[in-house]
Each structure stands twice: as structure tokens, then as C-alpha cells.
Amino acid sequence: MTSKIKQPISLKDNIHTILYGSKDEKEKLKGQYFHIADTPEFMKEKGLIGEFFSVRYGIISRHKNKDEDHNLSGQNWVDICKKITDPFAIIKNGCTYRLFTDVKINNRNIVVCVGVKNIGKALDVNAVTTAFGYRDRLITGEILYRSKKNNP
Question: With a threshold of 0.90, does the pTM exceed it?
Fold first, then answer.
């Protein structure tokens, strides 16, 4: 019998507080994990075995006011929650997976690379990187998936 891991609270329901809440409101959420999305079957077949994706408070707070073109708004985080299950590419490098999608920031499509680790009952998003492309960066690893319909 497989035990089901308890799903953390929803990122979508808490993103506004994380980004714009009072100091006391934010303090209550520090250290928390937030549910992003359930893992689709096709990803499980690629090795991303886990019931859902979650992200830690600190990963989100790092992007607050990062810079004008890469500052992720509450809506951008909601978009990532929707799009993470339909990436345009998945790359595996060692024990880490990178899921590539895009979001619109300041009327520009920005590539978002979501780093995933801790494959198991829950998939831990341990990095979210924004870029206009990956110039001067070497992306290494095995391409596990490339979408035929979803290309930025």
C-alpha cells in the first residue's frame, strides 16, 4: 500500500501575500513549501516520479524585485503553475531535471527554467531562472522531452 504524501498549501492562494504581504504575514509563510501543480503522467514516464511539484518560500522571495525584466509578478507565478505541466523541453543532468517554459513579462516572452530535484513523492523546485535565451550559458544534459506543439 502506497502512502500519499500531504500536499502543501497552494502557491496560487498565497503568492500575493508572499510578494506583497506585511512583514508579519510573510514571517508566517517563511520556510513553507507551496503546491505548484500535480505531476502529469508523461513526466512520470520520463523519470519525474512524484505526485506534485512544490516550491519553498525562499525560492520565490529571491525573485522579488530582481530586475525590471525578470521580476516575477504574482500573475507570472500563477502562469508558471499552469505551464510547468506543459513545458517546451525537459532536460536531465545527473539527478536534476530542468523544465523550460515561458512567461510574458513587460510584453516580452521570457524563458523560464525550473530546476527540479528530490525526485520521489514530491518534486522540489529548487531554482527558477529567467532569461531572454540562454546566450553564453551552456545547457548540458540529456534532452528527455521536446514539445512538438509548444515552442516559444
Answer: no
